[in-house]
Every structure is written in structure tokens, then in C-alpha cells.
Amino acid sequence: MNSTPLTSLSPGESGIVNTIDNSSPIKTRLRDIGFTNGATVRCEFASPFGDPIAYKIKNTTVALRKTDASDISVIKKTRRLIPWD
Amino acid sequence: MGLSGSSVGRNLLKEVTDIKSNSNDRKVIALAGNPNVGKSSLFNLITKLHQHTGNWPGKTVQVAVGNAVHNGNNYVFVDLPGCYSLFSRSPEEDVARDFIESNIADVTIIVCDATALERNLTLAMQIKELTPNVILCVNLLDEAKKKNISIDLDTLSIQLNCPVIGTVAHKSDSIDKIFDALEKYSPPSTDEKSDINEIKKAPDNPEAQKSTTENTEEYINIISQKAAEITSLAVKEKTENTTDLKIDKIITNRYLSFVIIFFLLITVFWITVAGANYPSRLLSHLFSSAEKPLYNLMYSLKIPKTICDMTVYGVYHILTWIISVMLPPMAIFFPLFTLLEDIGFLPRIAFNLDKCFQKCSTCGKQALTTCMGFGCNAAGVIGCRIIDTPRERMIAILTNSFIPCNGRFPVIISLITLFFISDSFIGSSSILPAVILALFIVLSISASLLVSKLLSKTILKGLPSSFTLELPPYRRPQISKIIIRSIFDRTLFVLGRAITVAAPAGLIIWVASNTTINGLSILEHIADFLDPLGRIMGLDGIILTAFILGFPANEIVFPLILMMYSSSGILSETGNLFAVKQILISNGWTFVTALNTIIFMLFHWPCSTTCLTVKSETKSVKWTLVAFALPTLFGILLCSLINLISNILL
Question: What is the pLDDT at residue B365?
Fold first, then answer.
């Protein structure tokens, strides 16, 4: 499976957290708020300007700026999870 | 910056150690947990001490301590700052970790959010590594139920090997459950070692820190795997409740979001201004009716006439004036703001507007402190605590007073009505003044963004820092609590600071306007001295003098201008707008004078209350001076520029 940056998920799409780039200044913070290896993350919605983007992780909604989200690589799940979207 | 982790942590430790050594029968109970899990609400219920809690992750930076008695047992509760982890070395986490590690607490209650148990358990397990005496409190069970999440507390208790209780934050039987668990609690008998390798604290030496980074990461991975395992055993989620997501999709919609924010702000202002009108008049009437009896009383006590005049017409008059113009709008604005905070709407505003702030290399949460500044700049400055990084917090503090507060709106609205629309419109309910006001608000927001950008390119250089913003679930507000909290924590606090400055200022204003040297009052001398500068800015000496004397409260600037023009020596109600316009025009006011007065009203030094607050938040005289000078210079330059252009054109 190929891993892609978290930012490549569009709203409604899910992925599994693979790695967080070492260059990320908030690597530990991201781990703390739930972006641990193997965790499922779902892209929820973008802000009106397209950045930041809100993600669902471990049942909480967290907004990340694109620069930070692109440091997280995920393995995309193919199935869409929200039926009405 | 304001609250450094170590100072708070150490003071707290000392305080609790003192409590412990003074009375042996008192048990020390620490409350720990993720931000925004209702920890502070539980603390308030237990100790009946009203500490501020908001639906905002990371709000509790200060540590609150409170006492409680139950069934004859004495307890001291310590509300530790909310944090996600104990190893990321933020000030909050340092405070929490130092306290837990000291093992000074007899029991640590780990408060968890039932709707996000997995992430909460990660912290719970970290805490269990540091202290064996823990009780897990699964809070917000009502919200979990709404989200179709059921939690098996017994399984949790077995898996974690510690007592587990389930609570609903604002229900009082939750408190009984907590005390029951505390009374039944006995420390674990066997000193069992956990199977997770022990990494207690990253060393201070950066070299050594580097080498432990990998260990820490591995440790976090192990812990989060274990948390996921336990969660899968104890938590059942049927179908996902998507109500919040549906609301969010509307609120963050590309087009709707700005309409919603705009109308919400307008509504809040309208309610504040309209609602404050009557109580303000009532208060002012009450105070002024007490003025004469007070004067007579002092006079009958054979107090010299000058002292009576000074106290009543100076101190009392200005003091009560400020209370009656400041108290009602604050008592309306703050509860409304706290309501939006409690519902969970404010983080969404920060989310929507973050991009603008990102462009200025600042934090998206500055959008919130900006909104707060519309109510009161002092409250806005305190609100900057929600911004995590010192650089961005400082920028938010320094630029907050570019936003016009409640106290400045009435003058701006009056001047717009008098000079910006033709006389025939005055009094009619035209939309025009509102549109012009909106333009001035846009100007002030743009100025605060521009200055933020300038600051982050110069003296507060830095890249936009990373930020993570949790969007909490929408919650039903608890009205009574909101009112109590916003009145006590915000309104009275700000009013208290205002009063401490208003009293001496009242004295100075009275003395300055009633002492004459060479036939002119001191005020007139000051006005003469400032006149050249005033002229350059398209104003005059009297207007500038009024701004200076209006330092304790912007509300009194306009009455001061009228007082000096009519040289009456006592502030009085502005009353009839047409009469006011006649006074102003006969003193040489033009459209440009009014425009520049509005501009200077938007951009001049922060009021004394705000200055005091900046001082206490930054703990630095230097930065307070910067906060003072920035808007002042901006205003002087802008006014001079406008005056120059108008001189060339007209």
C-alpha cells in the first residue's frame, strides 16, 4: 500500500496513520492528540479558505493547518464512510 | 510570559505541602485529565468555588485549589491544568507532571471524556506510571449516550486495575459518587511494576533529550496500542451520530460562514448597546440623586469646602459616571460571549478565520481574542492566554487595542450620526450609520492584522507556528452558571480594575479644571500646549486633552470635550444631538475633524484598565509601553496623513 500525505484526503475519506515526518515541529503534540501509528483518521471538512482542515481522530475533531497535516502520512482507505455525503 | 510553568508549579507544590504539614487529617486530591473534559466543572461542583471554565480546550492554565468537607472528612482539591500528555514539555504539562510526580496527592482522580475514551486513556496510563493512587472518572456519560456510545465501567476497572466511576459533569449525584469512591479507596497493596518500560521525564540537557526522543516515541506507541485494546474491550459504539458534523458543515460553509459570523457579531453588539441603555440611565440617575445628600453630609461634618468639592464633584462624580456607563454593557456582553464559548461556537470562528491570521504569521485563536476585544480590550488581553506560543500570544496582546471596545462605540456612532449623514437623516432609523460603522470596524480589523504582520516581520520575528485546534462537541449551555461565571470572573474583575484608576483620575480632572494659573485653568494650559500637535492631526488641543484625561475610560472622552468647550468644569450628559453639533461647529469642527476624532478613537493608547492588564499578563513594563505606543503612533500618523491629504484637496 502506498502512503500519501494526510492533506490528500478529501472530506469523507479515511486513512490509517502511517508515520509522522521527523521535521514536523509538533510531532509529539500530534501523537498526543491521537495521531499515533495505526489510528484511523477521517477528513471531516475544510474551513472556508480551504485551510485549516478538520479531521476526526479517535472520536475527537481536530483542526490542522495544511503545513502540519502534510507531515503526517496515511494509508488511504478506499471505502467512503459517510453515506449521505 | 505570564504564567511560566515552573513558577506556578513550584508555588503550588509549596502551598499544598504547607496544607499537608499543617493538618494531617486532610486528604489532598488532584484532578487531572485532557483539556475540556469537564474537569473544572467537577471541581467547581465539589468545592463550590467558582473557577472559570469554558468550552475551550486548554483554558485552565492557572491551577485552582479548593476545600471540601464530606461525611466529616476534609479534602483539599487541586485542579491541575488540562493536558494531552505528560511528556511534551509545555508549561501546562510541566505543572501537571511535577505535581503528580511529587506524589503529594493522596489520590489522583483522572477525569476522562466518555466520548473520546481512547485518547483520554493514553494520558491516564501515563499518570498511572507516575503514581499508583488513581481513580478513573469517566465523565460526560450523557454526551456519550447521545452519541450512541456505551461504556462498560467494570471491564475498564479490571483492565486498568484501578477504581472506575462514571459521572455526568453538572449532576450533583456525580459528586456523591466521587466522594464514595474516595472513602472506599485503599492504596494498591502489591507494589506491582507495569510492563511498560519506564521513561519518566525527558532530561533538560538537549543532547540527552535527543537520544530519549526515540524511546519516548516507542513508549507512546506502546501506550496508545494498549489504550486502543482496552477501548475495544470496554467501549461499544453503535451508529455514529452525525448531528455535530451536519452543523459544522453549515457553519464552515464557504459562503454562509461569513454571513453567520457577521450577523452574530452584529446581534451581540445590538443586544449589548440597546440593552445597556436603560440600566445605564437608571444607574446614573441613582448615583446623581445621591450626590447632593452626600455633599450636604460631608459639609455638615465640617469638612472644608474644597475637600467636599474634590470628593463629590471630582472623585465621586467620575467614579459613578464610569460605573454607570461601563457596568451594564459589560454585564450584557460577557454573558453573551460566555454563552457562545460554552456552546462551542467560538473555536469554529477561529477555525474559519485562521487563514487570515496564518498569512500574518499569527495564531488563528487571535480571531477569538479580537472578537473579545470588541467587548472589552482588557478581557481580550486576558483571553490571549488561550494562545500557546509566547510570540503569537504577545502579538495578540499588543494588537488587541486596535479593536474598538464597547466604550468607544457610542462616541463613534454619535459622530457618524452628526457629521457623516445629512441632518434630515438624524433620528430616522436609516441603515446608513450602521454601514459606515461597519466600514470603520473593517478598518480597525485590517489595521490590527497589518500591525500583527509588521510585528512578526520585525520585533517579534517568526514563522507561523504550528497549531492544533480541537473543535469540541456542541454542548447545551448552562445558563445560570454562565451568568454567575461571566459576572464574577469577567465583569466585576474588569470593573474593579477600572474603579481603582477612575477614583484618582476623577480627582486629577477636577483639580485640573478648577485650579487656575494666570486666569486659565490647568486644563486650558494643557490644551494650549497640545494645540499645535492637535492641529497637525486635524484635531485641536482640547480634543487631545480629553483623550489624555479619558485614560481611565474611553466613555468620558466625548463628555470631556464638551465640558471644556463649554468651560463648565463638571461633566454632564450630552443630551440633545443638535445642540451638541452646534457646540462642536462653533468650535471649528468640520467633517475632517469628526473623521480624525473617530480615527483617533479607534487608534490611540489602550485605556488604563487594559494597560494594567497587559502589564500583569506580560509581566513586563517594556511590552506594556509597546502596547501603549503602537496604536498611539498608528493613530497619530493616520490622522496626520488624512489631515495632510484633506488640506491639499480642500
Answer: 87
